[in-house]
Amino acid sequence: MQLNDDKLREILSQNIRSARLSCGLTQELLAEMSDISLTFLKDLEGGRSATSLLTLINLCNSLNITPNELLKDFFKPSHDKAIGLTQQINLLNDYQKNAVHALIQFFINNDM
Question: Where does 1-74 sit in CATH, by number?
Answer without folding.
Answer: 1.10.260.40
